[in-house]
Amino acid sequence: MHTHLHRFALAVLVICGVVGAAAAGGWPEGSGIASQDLPSSFWPVAIRHRQFLLGLLSAMLVLSTLLPALRVPAIAASLLSKAGFVAVAASAAMSGTEPLVVQAWIELGAIAALLAAAAVFWREARTEARWDGVRGRSVEA
Q1: Residue 38 in domain
Q2: Which one of 59, 62, 63, 80 counts the least CB within 10 Å of its CB?
Q3: Does residue 122 lie in a domain region?
Q4: 113 located within any domain
């Protein structure tokens, strides 16, 4: 079952996990991410929380290459996280925060890659179910 597409999908999970772990390093100083509306004590906690969640998602993506049962939750959680970030970045793009816009494009690329990996895994699961007789080829009347 380990076709080239399967290996590609596993590589996508590892690459997204490694890139996510690198992004867990936090925002550079002076990047314009912080807002004037929130108290300054909010940002260190929010950034640490984001780093922690990105670290967990990254670990989950990398572990899902070894544990197939983690693939669906890892991909779903990662897609949800990345889509939320892109939505926030799109609303903040109006203020002209350049590092945020660049990161949003990187996240959009990761979303596309994760969707492709999910499609490969879905196709494999469907084919395996057909081989096991769980799903028939055609519906009979």
Answers
A1: no
A2: 80
A3: yes
A4: yes
Neighbour count for residue 107 (Cβ, 10 Å): 21
Two structure tokens written together for 16? 């997204």
One-letter amino acid for residue 99 of the chain: P
As a whole number of angstroms, the distance between CA 26 and CA 47 comes to 6
> How many domains does the chain contain in total?
1
Is pTM beyond 0.70 here?
A: yes
Name residue, tokens 């690329």. Answer: 109
Q: Which domain holds residue 96?
A: 4-23+48-131
Please say whether the dihedral angle defined by the alpha carbons of residues 111, 117, 121 and 127, taken in this order, is positive or negative: positive
* Mean pLDDT per 10-residue segment, the chain (141 residues): 83 89 63 51 71 88 92 93 86 70 85 94 87 63 46
Residues with Cβ < 8 Å from 66, sequence gap 6 or more?
A: none
